[in-house]
Write a structure and sequence with these properties.
By secondary structure, this protein is mainly α. It contains five helices and two strands. The protein has one domain. The chain has a two-stranded antiparallel ribbon with strand order 1-2.
Length: about 130
């Protein structure tokens, strides 16, 4: 049973639910920097689909996918993730989903922060 909703992915012919990255990946880790590096590399891909995705970004992606998957599958390993994708194209699709889920999450957090600040300032004016 999955604890956290997400998107369905397939590793070694087995289906998994990939949830968004947990907040601690940002607050206690370096998920933002890793996602930025991956995103920067994605922008440098040529029209033919080849380009500048570095080994560092591939490693970062696997690490972030493992971090997200461990929310639902605590025992999953980096090796299982690395070996589980049929090809680079499948991993690229997961990367795009992971980045977009994280961007949506970041936008929600920013909106909540702004809303909380506005409420605080409003209450302060009334006091």
């Amino acid at each position: 049973m999955v604890k956290v909703k997400g998107i369905e992915i397939e590793l070694n012919d087995q289906k998994y639910i990939l949830p968004p990255l947990p907040i601690k990946a940002f607050s206690k880790g370096d998920a933002s920097a890793k996602l930025k590096k991956i995103n920067d590399d994605m922008r440098n891909i040529n029209d033919d689909g080849l380009g500048a995705i570095t080994a560092e970004s591939w490693g970062n992606l696997v690490e972030l996918v493992v971090t997200a998957l461990r929310r639902n599958y605590p025992d999953i390993t980096a090796e299982e993730v690395e070996n589980g994708f049929e090809d680079v194209t499948a991993l690229m699709g997961v990367m795009q989903n992971l980045v977009s889920q994280s961007a949506e999450f970041k936008d929600k957090v920013e909106a909540e922060r702004k809303n909380a600040t506005e409420k605080f300032l409003e209450q302060k004016k009334k006091a």
